[in-house]
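#lab-general

N.A. 3:47 PM
ok so I finally got the sequence cleaned up, no stray characters, all 169 residues accounted for. can someone with queue access submit it? mine expired

B.Y. 3:52 PM
send it over

N.A. 3:53 PM
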Amino acid sequence: MAKDDKAAAATAAAKRVAFDRVRLIHEDLDRLTTDASERTASISTKASFLAVSAGVIIAALTAQVWEHFPVVGVVAMALAVAGLLCAAIALRPGRRQGTTGRSLADRFIDSTASVQQIEPILVREKASHLTAREADLRARSVWVWVGFIALGGAAILLAIIFSAELLGA
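B.Y. 4:20 PM
back already:
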C-alpha cells in the first residue's frame, strides 16, 4: 500500500511540475503578446507619419508647374505616391489574431477536462496565434521601410527640382 501511495505521490508531483511549466510558458506568452501589441502600435504610428509626409510632398509637387526638369517632378511624384501606397498597405486592417471568446466558451464551458488538460491546449493556440501575428508585423514593417525609402527619394528629388526652379537652372 505504501508503494502505491509513493507512486501516486510521484505521479502527482510530476503532473504538478508539468503544469507549473505550462503556467510559466503561458505567462511568458502573455508578455510576448503585450510586446507585439506595442510593436503593432509603433508600426502604425510610423505608417501614419509616412502617409502624412507623403501627402505633404505630393501637395508640394502639385503646387506649381515645374518648368525645369519636369521629368524629375514626375519621378518624385511617383515615389511619393509609392510611399503613400506603402503606408496604406502597412495600415490595412488585418485579420484578428487569436482565439475568440466565443470559440473558447464553446469548446471548454461544458468540458469535463481539467485545468491541467485545458491550459496546454490554450498555450499551444496562443503560441500559434503569436507566430502568425509576428509574421504579419514583419510584413507591415517591410512596407513601412520601403515607403520611407520611396519618400526619401521623393524628398531629395523635390529638393532638386525646387532648387532648379528657384535658381533658374
